[in-house]
Amino acid sequence: MPASLLHGRAGVTAAAAIVFASALVGCSHNGGTGSSPTSATPSASATPSPSASASPSPPPVGRTRITIKNFAFAPAQLTVPARALTTVVNEDAVAHTVTATAGATNGKTFDTGDIAPGKTATFTAPAKPGTYPYLCTIHPYMKGALTVR
Fold this sequence. Notes:
By secondary structure, this protein is an alpha/beta fold. The chain has two domains: 3-53, no CATH class; 61-148, Immunoglobulin-like. It is 21% helix and 28% strand. The protein is built from three helices and eight strands. The strands form two sheets. Strands 2-1-4-6 form a four-stranded mixed sheet, with no helix packed on it.
């Protein structure tokens, strides 16, 4: 492609379209005939691609909520089904976290990171049943426990 076509907004758009089209075609280009038996191979290899981008674990089930207010988790003890989607709402004027202190096998099993005042964060409960203690890493005296059934 001539360099003059890559100038300006239209050139950038054209270049992006070419890159995108090239990514779709990939290394499976067969010279444009489309009649070669190898043309079925790219389709077959492209089929698993959406599955590869999907999470290998089942999607979250159920929805639960933890509210942080007055430097406390409410409820401090929460029982959820495995893989429940849990939303944490920070109603305090300072940032907090919800961070598992121990996990079934790998230490921390969930961590919201810093949740700014007035903001929310979401995490997925572990798949393995058990009790998972958690705390706010900014204010370690704030503690709770998530029980997975």
